[in-house]
Structure formats: C-alpha cells, structure tokens
C-alpha cells in the first residue's frame, strides 16, 4: 500500500512524468510484487479487482517463452470466471450462420490441432512511459508475453457453423460479466480475418491448460494483433451481417489514423480507427546494475518482436554511433519473440547510451522520437539504457 501511495503522490506532483528528474525511476517502478493470485508466481500488482498483473521485466532475460505462472493478466471487469465446469461448458456460434452450433470441449478437441508461438501484448503495454502521461493502467514493459499456443483454427469452427454469404464481422465474448448497464466486453474481426486460418481458439499455453486468469478453458489467439482481440474464456461467437458498432469496437481502443498512431500531445479530435496490428519492438534484457569495466567486452542480450511480421534485424547503437547488426537467436516463427545478442567492445570510461532497434520483414522499423495518443497505445519508440564504464 505504501508503494501505491508513493507512486500516486509522485504522479500527482508531476514528477514521474518529467522524464529527466529521476534517473532510474522508470526502471525501478515502485509497484508491489505479490504472490497471492491463483496459478501465478511473483507479479507486479497494478490493480486487484479486476486483476491487472504485470510481468517483472527481469523475467524476459530468462528466455523467449514467458512461463504461464508469470504471464501478465488483464481483465476489464470484476466479475471474471473463477471456476469453469468443463463438462457443461459450451462455445456457442450463432448469428449469420446456416446452423447455430454449441461446441463442447470434446467437440473442439476433435478438430485438427494447430500450434503457434505468438506474443500477446496489451495495447497499453509501456503506457507508463508516455509523456505527457495519459490515464489508464501505468504498465511498464511487462504487459506482454510470448507463449506456444495449442488449439484449433477459428476457420474450422466457423466453417462447421456455415458463415452466410455477405456476413461482415465475427464478434467474440467470454464468461466475464459487466456491472450494471455497462457494455459487455466484446471484440470483433472482419470475416476475412477470422477465416484466415491463423486466428485460433487455444486450449493450451506452453503445453498446459490455460491458467484461469489467462482465459481457461479456451481463448482466442489473434497472431500479430494487440491482445484486446484475444478474448479469454471465449464462450460466444456471433457472426454479424454489418460492421460491429458495439462500444468496445466503435468507441474504445481507437487509435489516431496517423503514422505511428501519433498526434500532438493533448489533441482530442482526429480521425480514428480501431487498434489492430502490432509494431516492431526490441529490448535489452541483460541490464546489469553497477559499473562495467572500461575497455573490456560487454555482452548484451535481449528480445525483439516484428509485430505483424517477423523480425528481420535487430541493430544496436552505442552513443549515437552507427547501427550495428546483432546476432539473432533461433526463429520460433514470425509472431514470436526473437532473442538477439551482441558483444560491445572498448567502452571508454564514463556513461554510455546503448540503444536497440528492431526492423521487421515488412520493412517497418522503430524510431527514436516518442509518440503520443490519448489512449497510451502502441508505444514502440527505440529503447535505450545507460551503462557506466569505469
Ligand atoms: N473475456 C475477456 N477477454 C479479454 C479481456 C477481458 O477483459 N475479457 N481483456 C483483453 C485485453 S485488453 C488483454 S490485454 C488481454 C490480456 O490477456 P492475458 O490476461 O491473458 O494476458 O486479454 C484480452 N481478452
Ligand atoms: Mo489490453
């Protein structure tokens, strides 16, 4: 509680948003580390109800797969499923289909299996680094995770129900319930996207059942798209014959229709569109603390993502110098984190700024200048660390 207080007080004073007053502030955010959530290990507590749990950044240095018990958690509403009777559970498919269907878990398990490693990243991952600050959960970089998902193709489920010609969108919702008259949490994809053969209904994560807080018994996986679309505890698929005008599609999760989803800070009126594909990002995870040896080789490693396409290259720059190519780790598919490493030599005594930049196979790259939008979405500015050689 004391930690919350300190953070809030600093934010209220405008100190946290200043960006230059507190060196190290952003790396040592005072969120409490808690262990009291079911099926979860030590997580940074953003909020208890509805749960918002952040993965401590150090974990990303341990490998490119995020363990289930350390995977971040985000729910909009308090009333979330705490247990599910898997025998009684049904996934209903209705709307503009030739036959309404209700799939049991056993029915789903009979469909062809698919497996894919993919990053689940919240639209507001890294929101705490927006300057000026924006409302919403002040996530550091830990509202993302990478897992091997096992499940069935959404297309196979839709084909069994028979999507009617002329259908426009497919809407998804889960077992969580809104309070009072609040709008049901539901997101939709175009029919073509829903039937692309990549979007999947996952029942396993890293070879195990999904943790309850990550969507047990089944969730949607929308590779390359922000996880607002990855509906958890999915129990209803509705095929629509017109574009979805529900609150969560038409009003929430809107981004500026501008390059990099960026507008001048404070701008409220701008053409908008629903958030969609992810962008390339990269991080240095081997952030040592304390001084490093001047003149000695410094080994650095980290992770990168391509976003909606694979990682083509990760480059590193020391003190604003030329971008040098790092060595990429094993390729686990275009939607997965990709490890990278590099040894930097001969750092003169003093501070050094080391920046890292990912470029994806579509040619999109990270830029150094910050972006801003009122939702605090899609931050993908180049990340840098400062090391001290002595
Ligand atoms: N049913 C349901 N699914 C949901 C949400 C939700 O509130 N309810 N939140 C979405 C958002 S915004 C995010 S960031 C991801 C988080 O997935 P995770 O909790 O497994 O990390 O779930 C998505 N799916
Ligand atoms: Mo999110």
How would you describe this structure to a colleague?
The protein is mainly beta and about 400 residues long. Among the domains are: about 5-15 and about 80-125 and about 145-250, Sulfite Oxidase, Chain A, domain 2 (Alpha-Beta Complex); about 280-390, Immunoglobulin-like (Sandwich). About 10% of the residues lie in helices and about 30% in strands. The protein has 6 helices and 24 strands. The chain has helices spanning about 1-15, 15-20, 105-110, 155-160, 190-195, 245-250; strands at about 35, 45, 50-55, 75, 90-95, 100-105, 115-120, 145-155, 170-175, 185-190, 200-205, 210, 220, 235-240, 255, 270-275, 280-285, 300-305, 310-320, 325, 325-330, 340-345, 350-360, 385-390. The strands form 6 sheets. Strands 6-5-14-9-10 form a 5-stranded mixed beta sheet. Strands 7, 8, 11, 12 and 13 form a 5-stranded antiparallel beta sheet that branches. The protein has a 4-stranded antiparallel beta sheet with strand order 1-2-3-4, with no helix packed on it. The longest helix is centred in the first third of the chain and has 12 residues, at about 1-15. The radius of gyration is 21 Å and the shape is globular. It binds ligand MTE and molybdenum atom. Molybdenum atom binds next to loops.
């Amino acid at each position: 509680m004391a930690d919350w207080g300190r953070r809030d007080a600093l934010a209220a004073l405008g100190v946290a948003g200043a960006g230059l007053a507190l060196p190290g502030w952003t790396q040592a955010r005072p969120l409490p580390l808690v262990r009291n959530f079911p099926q979860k290990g030590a997580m940074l507590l953003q909020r208890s109800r509805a749960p918002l749990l952040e993965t401590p950044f150090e974990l990303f240095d341990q490998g490119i797969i995020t363990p289930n018990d350390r995977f971040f958690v985000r729910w909009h509403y308090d009333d979330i499923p705490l247990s599910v009777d898997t025998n009684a559970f049904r996934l209903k498919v209705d709307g503009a289909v030739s036959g309404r269907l209700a799939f049991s878990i056993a029915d789903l398990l009979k469909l062809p299996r698919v497996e894919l490693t993919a990053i689940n990243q919240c639209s507001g991952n890294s929101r705490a680094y927006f300057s000026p600050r924006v409302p919403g959960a002040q996530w550091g970089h830990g509202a993302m995770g990478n897992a091997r998902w096992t499940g069935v193709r959404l297309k196979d489920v839709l084909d069994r129900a028979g999507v009617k010609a002329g259908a426009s969108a497919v809407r998804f919702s889960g077992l969580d319930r809104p309070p009072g008259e609040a709008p049901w949490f539901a997101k939709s994809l175009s029919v073509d996207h829903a039937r692309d053969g990549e979007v999947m209904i996952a029942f396993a994560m890293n070879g195990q059942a999904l943790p309850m807080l990550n969507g047990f018994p089944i969730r949607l996986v929308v590779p390359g798209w922000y996880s607002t679309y990855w509906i958890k505890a999915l129990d209803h698929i509705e095929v629509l014959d017109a574009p979805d005008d529900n609150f969560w599609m038409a009003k929430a999760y809107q981004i500026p229709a501008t390059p990099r989803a960026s507008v001048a800070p404070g701008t409220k009126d701008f053409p908008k569109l629903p958030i969609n594909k992810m962008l390339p990002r990269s991080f240095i995870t081997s952030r040592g603390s304390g001084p490093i040896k001047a003149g000695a080789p410094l080994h650095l490693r980290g992770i990168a993502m391509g976003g909606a396409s694979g990682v083509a290259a990760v480059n590193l720059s020391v003190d604003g110098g030329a971008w040098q190519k790092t060595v990429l780790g094993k390729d686990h598919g275009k939607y997965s984190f990709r490890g990278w490493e590099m040894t930097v030599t001969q750092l003169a005594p003093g501070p050094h700024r080391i920046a890292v930049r990912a470029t994806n196979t579509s040619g999109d790259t990270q830029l150094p200048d910050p972006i801003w939008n009122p939702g605090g979405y899609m931050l993908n500015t180049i990340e840098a660390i400062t090391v001290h050689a002595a």
